[in-house]
UniProtKB/TrEMBL annotation:
The keyword NAD appears for this protein: no
SUPFAM superfamilies registered for this protein in UniProt: Thiolase-like
Pfam family, one: HMG_CoA_synt_N
The protein's enzyme class: transferase
Record family assignment: Belongs to the thiolase-like superfamily. HMG-CoA synthase family.
Name listed for the protein in its UniProt record: Hydroxymethylglutaryl-CoA synthase
Length: 383
């Protein structure tokens, strides 16, 4: 049976910071951010916008009333959870009006969780071909003002509808996963920001790609030549390129050029958004589908990486007519219509924390933003 991604969309909040402005404010050469890190803009959010806000806005772009009747599982991958116990997927299930006889839960392993959710969904559809699964990856990547990780922040969500006979990407059931207990990036309970060993995280990412890619090639007797494009988890756009360059070392120059050209198409959106943690690989996939010239039947490789660490390489085959399922115009309009913030506005927004224990009402025009908090329970602005 063919199982995979039937629909896919992303949502980012309507604000960004220009990386030249951030560099100048931090007394850094702007080329470090634009070239060295590979970021042009960074998405930022108001305190009244959380992972549920982003998840619901991304999912509403793709779901029809018929889908809502057929979905029997909602999985949210996140490392920015708003509750230690109750899953954001349960709130999302209600906000979206999905039929009641469904499972809804949250899943965690740093930036890998979106892929864990996708693979769980695929396994479920293989047993229940008539059902559909909503997979969402939603996060707020924050490292702190003037911190080393600041230029690699970002925020937003990806929503995917997983089904049998998918109309975008059929997954090839060829995953190779790798688990290693390494502290390169982690966030202990109670900490607002992650602990991160930046250089170790870069090295571990590159080595993890090399390990799963080598194992994948051996198990499946495949090489770069079998892929039309490879797309990566993108904590910042230079990262995937560094891993790719290391693996491409022994390839002919024209083969390197072919693969790198497609990588550039996969980072068009991330350059304007920053890190989405769990959603980053899938923002890269959307960017590739919407910005590269691709044809049905072509093979796409996907590298998922979550610090701590779990990595996975898997692949998919583009389905005939996939281009008719894309929401290119909506996505590009969304990015273009955001408001650029001054550094002062960004810092004020960053420091404006949600008072999770205070009973209060809020006034944010964004759909599914937090409308009030009462007894620590969040209510969201609905249609
Ligand atoms: N012009 C052009 N390039 C310049 C430059 C200039 N004026 N100045 C510096 N650069 C280059 C550097 O040469 C370097 O390039 P290479 O990596 O190719 O050597 C690049 O800019 C970055 O410079 P530094 O290494 O000095 O940057 P830094 O020490 O300030 O930190 C970072 C970079 C480690 C990524 C930091 O931003 C960070 O800790 N980020 C968070 C962690 C992270 O994203 N890790 C990625 C792997 S972990 C993961 O993938 C999971 C996840 O999502 C977090």
């Amino acid at each position: 049976m063919n199982v995979g991604i039937d629909k896919i969309s992303f949502f980012v909040p309507p604000y960004y910071v220009d990386m030249t402005d951030l560099a100048l404010a931090r007394e850094v050469d702007p080329n470090k951010f634009h070239i060295g890190i590979g970021q042009d803009k960074m998405a930022v959010n108001k305190k009244t916008q959380d992972i549920v806000t982003f998840a619901a806005n991304a999912a509403k772009n793709i779901l029809t009333d018929e889908d809502k009747k057929q979905i029997d599982m909602v999985i949210v991958g996140t490392e920015s959870g708003i509750d230690e116990s109750k899953a954001s997927a349960v709130v999302l299930h209600r906000l979206l009006g999905i039929q009641p006889f469904a499972r809804a839960f949250e899943i965690k392993e740093a930036c890998y969780a979106g892929t864990a959710a996708l693979q769980y969904a695929v396994a479920h559809i293989n047993i229940h071909p008539e059902s559909k699964v909503l997979v969402v990856a939603s996060d707020i990547a924050k490292y702190g003002l003037a911190s080393g990780g600041e230029p690699t922040q970002g925020v937003g969500a990806i929503a995917m509808l997983v089904s049998a006979d998918p109309r975008i990407l059929q997954l090839n059931n060829d995953s190779v996963a790798l688990t290693q207990d390494i502290y390169d990036f982690w966030r202990p309970v109670g900490h607002d920001y992650p602990m991160v060993d930046g250089q170790l995280s870069n090295e571990t990412y590159i080595q993890a790609f090399q390990k799963v890619w080598k194992e994948y090639q051996q198990r499946h007797k495949k090489s770069f030549a079998d892929f039309h494009a490879l797309t990566f988890h993108i904590p910042y756009t230079k990262m995937g390129k560094k891993a790719l360059l290391a693996a491409l070392e022994d390839e002919a120059p024209e083969e390197q050029e072919r693969i790198l050209a497609k990588y550039e198409a996969s980072i068009v959106y991330s350059r304007q958004v920053g890190n989405l943690y769990t959603g980053s690989l899938y923002l890269g996939l959307i960017s590739l589908l919407e910005n590269a010239k691709l044809k049905a039947g072509e093979q796409i490789g996907l590298f998922s990486y979550g610090s701590g660490t779990v990595a996975e390489f898997f692949s998919g085959t583009l389905v005939g007519g996939f281009e008719n399922q894309l929401l290119t115009e909506l996505h590009q309009k969304q990015l273009a219509e955001r408001k650029g913030l001054s550094i002062t506005e960004y810092e004020e927004m960053f420091n404006d924390h949600l008072e999770v224990d205070a009973d209060k009402e809020y006034d944010d025009a964004l759909l599914y933003s937090i409308a009030s908090i009462s007894n620590t329970v969040r209510t969201y602005k609905e249609d």
